[in-house]
Structure formats: structure tokens, C-alpha cells
Amino acid sequence: MENMIKVAVDAMGGDYAPKEAVKGSVAAVSEKENVQVLLVGKQEVLEQELSQCSYPKERIQIVPASEVIETGEPPVAAIRSKKDSSIVVGMKMVRKGEADAFVSAGSSGAILVGGTTIVGRIKGVERAPLAPLIPTKEGVSLLIDCGANVDARASHLIQFARMGSIYMEHVMGVKKPRVGIVNIGVEEEKGNALVKEAYPLLKECKDLNFIGSIEAREIPSGAADVIVTEAFVGNVILKLYEGLGNTLLSKIKGSMMSSFRSKIGALLVKPALKKTLKGFDASQYGGAPLLGLKGLVVKCHGNSKETEFKNSIIQCISFKEQRISERIGENLTVAEEK
Amino acid sequence: MENMIKVAVDAMGGDYAPKEAVKGSVAAVSEKENVQVLLVGKQEVLEQELSQCSYPKERIQIVPASEVIETGEPPVAAIRSKKDSSIVVGMKMVRKGEADAFVSAGSSGAILVGGTTIVGRIKGVERAPLAPLIPTKEGVSLLIDCGANVDARASHLIQFARMGSIYMEHVMGVKKPRVGIVNIGVEEEKGNALVKEAYPLLKECKDLNFIGSIEAREIPSGAADVIVTEAFVGNVILKLYEGLGNTLLSKIKGSMMSSFRSKIGALLVKPALKKTLKGFDASQYGGAPLLGLKGLVVKCHGNSKETEFKNSIIQCISFKEQRISERIGENLTVAEEK
């Protein structure tokens, strides 16, 4: 098939490897006709897993890789030494054009390092940001950067804003995405040195719908579609989202089980509550793309299950069809020349 | 009375001034015998408000101040020019020893600037951090710094850790408070330049119970008693706490009202739920102390009502009785000499 999108999937990464990666791959090829999965990992193990599944055989192929990069390993050394690891093998396929995208729930550090050193940045891109979608009251926003690019410079933030805008417009279908920069107040003179430097530069970008500073308080209400920040702050936002959501929900559950009366009530509210909270479940949206690379790399949560793998694989289709990498390359080149 | 604690209260600060500040003051002197409130603001307005309340007359006194610093005003200029504002008048009383503490729900910027320039820092304190208590699964943690000290240096973070530890031990009664530094991973080599510099210095502080890095995900579960971070990140954490809590609760409320079945259920779970969520309501804990000053300054939320004012005033009693400012001075001097 001509328009088949080829996605290399790291079958060895994540807490539930290889089972959930395999199940997610099977689900993805069953749901979408124009995707082919290249399952990277230990051949025998994967053959065994796949033998238990039913799926169109021609659309899942095993690509052998004998090594696994563990989460605790120092990323740079791991990428260099484990040439036959699922991450290195999968990323090399993207670099060579044998795959359009690579999906992994493995070591974040190794994925970030491998993305830059193996897949490589698009010409003009200074740093490749990790950009997860986070749930909001109204839908989702893109939080960019949550990666390893700590101590970013203002010029990086401008590129993050551009890449995030392209992603939200063409993958998520948001017209003129509102771009906000995370700040500690909405007045223009507020902020740390980085934000004060980036703010006027963002304001000058005529190609962006820059709405100014947003305070962290406004993020969950969906005040911006693209939330620009450097990686340390982005990581804090992402992880606090997770932690606070879990703590609040466990407290709410606990309180509902505290008396006979509330237990009965809990049974009655449960279906409605479940539906609502599903909208706040990050796994729905698949993994986070690492933007600005010569091919797509998607980082899934370490605890990803079938659904997140499936959605991450499906996400690669629009990314490829919408030519996101090409658009980023063109946009940044034009912006540079101006 | 010999051990009477004198608290100057900014009656003109906050969204509900002067009514809620006055009500909170009346509630505080009614609840605690050893506190006297000096209500700072427009005399006629305050006389009018107080005339509607019943309280021990000798324990609330009006201190006239004709001006008000508005939230939007540039803080430095406002503190300089509005000499007869409630913030400047109240803080001067602390500096002169006419009051032990100052409580205000007014302009954060003006309170931070005034704290340093009028009340003044304790000798040896490089920066005065704003340190709110935030709710966790188990109780509360102190988040230090959430103030205006952006672009902090490592030496500041070490002092924040010490001041926060003293506060949690002597005001909140936590033995050997666990001190954690906010980071994007738990490994020692992780972090931005600031955290990498501060981490080994914190590890060397034998007077602290330093437990290492904590990720934002672990904050709500109560992984540390004192959460050390620079102000930009602290502000993001504090405000995201607020925003995410509100969004989740409004979604939960909405889902409970979505069907007849869930409405009935909601009625049954409401009492238990309300009790639980109260534990996650920051107003319970009073305002945030600005630590490291020659007297106590407490910053309340702009939307503070009676309870937060009352609790903030009462908080000043243990702060004074436990000699927190003196302990901070002694501790930092000893640490310096080592």
C-alpha cells in the first residue's frame, strides 16, 4: 500500500514490556488500515507474544534487537555502547528512512539522547523539545518543553513556540493556536531572566498567536493551546499534574468509602465520575512527541499499557500525513531568514 | 498582660477589605486570650465595621492609615511614595517593635518589597523567602520559596532549607523535618545548574534532615516536610496546586450533576466529600510567612476571608512564642561560622 505509515515500536521499553507494547501494536494495526508496525526487540520473546494474538500478519514485523537499555543507565553511555538495543536499532531505522516514526516507553534519557544523536535534529533546530499533551477543562494543551533541555536560552523557547504551534494546528486541528509563556504574573515586566528575554521576542513573532504570560493557575482551565516553558519547569508541571490528580482522586475515593451513606452515593455517582475522570487521563492522548527531529520519536510513559501504545502509534499517522517535520523545517528556515 | 502578642493587621488589603480582615481579627481575639490586634487602615471605615461586632474592646485598636496600595501598583514606587498606606504603617510598627507581626492580604509585590526594605532582614539572611504551607495527602508541607526572589543562587536555597526546617519543627511541631529539593529526577546528577550546585551543599548540612531530590509528582503525597526550590518554580507549584484542584473539583461536581442517578448519589456523598476537600483547602492554614525578617510578616491570599485572617493572626502566636526569628538568626550565624 502506497501510503502505509511505518512505525517502529520499542517492544522492550516500559514497565510492562513486552506484553503491552505488543498488545498496543496489534490494536493499532487492527484499528487503522494504513499503519505497519516494526516491533523491535528480542525475537523469540516477541514471536511468543505475537503467537497469542490475532492480527493481519503482513502488518506487524519483528525487527531483532538483542539488548535492552535499562531506565537507570546513564543515557549517553548506553546509547553509545548498546548498539543492538531496541532503542538504538529502532532509531536507526528512522534515520535511514526505513521507519517513519519510533515509539518507546523506555528510558527517557536514552530516548532524548538517541533522538538528537541518532535520528538527528532538523536543520535550524537548536534543541528538540519533548511536548506532551496535558488534559484541561476544555480539552488538551501542548506543554513544551518537558525534556532534558534544562537551562534553556530564549532562542530555544521561541523555536519551541513555533514547533508547538505547528503541532497543535496540523495534528490536533486547532486553528491559530494560542501560545502562552509560563510566568509568575501576567504583567510584562514580571518573570525570571529567561522569561523577560523571551517575552518581547515572542511578541515580535507575527506567525504566532502569542497571548502573553500565563500563570500556572490558568493551565488546567485551558488558557493556552501551546504552553511554552523551559524543561525544568515543564517537567515540574507535568509531574505535579500527575501527582496532584492521583492524590485528590485517592482522597475522594477514600472519603466516599467512609460511611454507609457515602458508599451508596458512590455507587450512584461512579459511572458519571469515571467518564469525567477519563478525560483527565493522560494515557488517552498517547505519548509525547519529541519535536524538531528528522523523523518522529514518541516517548510514552514508563507505565504505559495497550491503549497508550495504540494511541501513540496512531498519532504517528497524522504526524506523517501532515508533514510536521517538513513544516517545522520550512517554518524555522523562513523565520531565520527574516 | 505580659505575654500578649501584638499583631498589626492590614485592614485595607485583599478582595474583601475591610470586612473580612475585621471579622478575622474579631474572631482571633475571641478565640485566643494572648493576642492583641492593631487594625491598620482608614479610621472611620474601621470604626464603622467594628461597631457592628462584639469583642473584648481592649484587644482591638485602630491604627489610622489614610492610603491604600493597590494590587497593580509597581511595588517599589508604591512603598516609597505611599508613606501613610496600611502596608507601610503596619510594617513600620513591626520594625519599631510596636507590633510583633504584620498580616496582610494586600499586594504581594509591596509586601515582599516592604518586608525587606522596612522590616529588614535578619543579619546573615541573603533573601527573605515566602513560604506557604501546602496541603498533602498526610498533612501539610512547607514550600519555600514562592516569593519574588527569582533567579536565586545556591546559597539562597541552603538558607531557605534552614529557615524552612526551623519553621516546620518549631511552629508545626514536626520532629526532624525531611528536607527535599525539587528536581526532575531523583538521581544526584540530574537537574539544572542551580540544583546541581545546591544539592551537594545541602548534603553537607549536618543540621538538616536532607532526603535528596523530590520530583513534583511526590509533593502531593507528602514526600518531604520542607520543599526547597527557587521562587519561579515554587510559584508555579503553588498556583498549579490551586488551578488543578479547582478544575478537577469543578469537573467532578459537573459530572455529579449530569444525571438523575448521579444527582441522588451526590447528595449522599456530599458530607464526606466536603470534609475531605476541606483538608485540601489552603485557607485553613492561614497565610504564608515571609521568613528571615526581623519580625514576622504574613502574606494572605488576595481572596482571604475571615477564617484565613483569623488563622494567620493565630499563627503569629506560635511564631513569636517559639522565637522563630531569633532561632533563624542564631542558626544562620552558627552555620556561617562553621
Keywords:
homodimer, 338 residues, alpha/beta, 6-stranded mixed β-sheet, 5-stranded mixed β-sheet, 11 helices, 11 strands, 46% helix
Characterise this structure.
The structure is a homodimer of 338-residue chains. With 338 residues, chain A is of the alpha/beta class. Chain A is built from eleven helices and eleven strands. In chain A, strands 3-2-1-4-11-10 form a six-stranded mixed sheet, with helices on both faces. In chain A, helix 1 (19-31) links the parallel strand 1 and strand 2. Chain A is globular, with a radius of gyration of 21 Å. The mean pLDDT of chain A is 91. Chains A and B meet through helix 8 and helix 9 of A and helix 8 and helix 9 of B.
Topology:
The structure is a homodimer of 338-residue chains.
Chain A (H helix, E strand, L loop, with lengths): L4 E6 L8 H13 L3 E7 L1 H9 L8 E5 L10 H7 L4 H10 L5 E4 L3 H12 L13 E3 L4 E5 L9 H17 L7 E5 L10 H12 L4 E6 L11 E3 L2 H26 L3 H19 L9 E3 L5 E4 L6 H16 L2 H14 L1
Parallel strand pairs in A: 1-2, 1-4, 2-3, 4-11, 6-9, 7-8, 7-9
Antiparallel strand pairs in A: 5-6, 10-11
Helix pairs in contact in A: 1-10, 3-5, 4-5, 6-7, 6-11
